[in-house]
Target: Schlafen group 3-like DNA/RNA helicase domain-containing protein
Amino acid sequence: MALDNAATHKLSPELALSGPQTELLHRVVSFCERHQADDSALFVIEGAAGTGKSVVLNAIFNTLQTRARSGVADDPLRGLRNMVIVNHPEMLKLYRNIAATMPNLRKSDYERPTTFINKSAKTGKRADIVLVDEAHLLLTRPDRYNHFAQQNHLEEILRWARIVVVVFDPLQVLKFKSHWSTDLLESFRKGRPSETFHLDTQFRVSASPATCSWIDALGQGEILPRPEDPSFDLRIYDDCAKLYADLCACNSKYGLCRLLSTYDYPYTLNGEDHFITEGDFRLRWDRSLPSEKLPWAERPDTIDEVGSVYTIQGFDLNYAGVILGPSLFYDAKNDRIGVRPERYEDSAAFQGRDGIATPEEAKKRVILNALNVILTRGIHGLFLYAHDPALRERLLRT
Model:
């Protein structure tokens, strides 16, 4: 079995695209050609986790930059100033690492949204085409901590770019201050040319449709009968230490295997290590290393850490181990996963609830979204352990 040893090449613009991805590339490039003289236009790419959104986005960007920097005098896209924006430091590292290997891409072509907005406001210069990956991570309210004083990232990006292409998945919204909805996104289409393209083919999880459905349902709190699937290694554990030992063995054999957890164990950015303990298992949370050039998922040493949704979102693993922490329990009455927001340790996720009609339900939605993200990282296998004994027992008999 040939497994992937790095995530970097999986976003390379040189990768062969599927039929729908190729169609999308042509659709976006054509959209940019038609609207390159307009004041404002918006193209929305929708798709669930693992449908290849970032892959095709970087291929689109490479096509745009190749034409922008080419010597073809009559090319309508020649000389345009284009950018990729992503509000995810680990993804930004990945994109910049890829740019260093491509002749028509520059590391400076990639930025965080607040940096792009503040630089544009300072210079007064608009970009021509801006592609936004992980647009569900854009802020929908001011955030002083991140030096964003305006009301909405996308609103400001549309102000400072003539054509904006966004990649969006509402099931990956992780914070109240990024509380996106389809309706909110729809409001930005009004008054400007817009198109939408939906990707629905699963490229990450190499499993049968029944297994993909089982994982997707679990990410929504539903517990379905576990399918037999020789193409995907799906395991449920009653011992977290055993799960970790098996995951380490897979990592030694295949590489790119990591342990992840829901954000249910204390963690503080104070320079100290913080540990997750489950029975005989004890391992530290991922360390914050902003100066590290490699993304967390690609660093060999991170097999000795537990990753969070924030370090793994957007990345692929060969095998993913996932700890379902104390915020998740077995709701026997409804035979599903219940959610306890008070046990969720990511308190920053629930800051800024103004304008959210039902904050308690929104909290549960955020927690399940985060669960969905970490469940869909493994290409070839998923190993699960639940903190709640009743949930553990229920999953073991699926």
Summary: The chain has eleven helices and 15 strands.
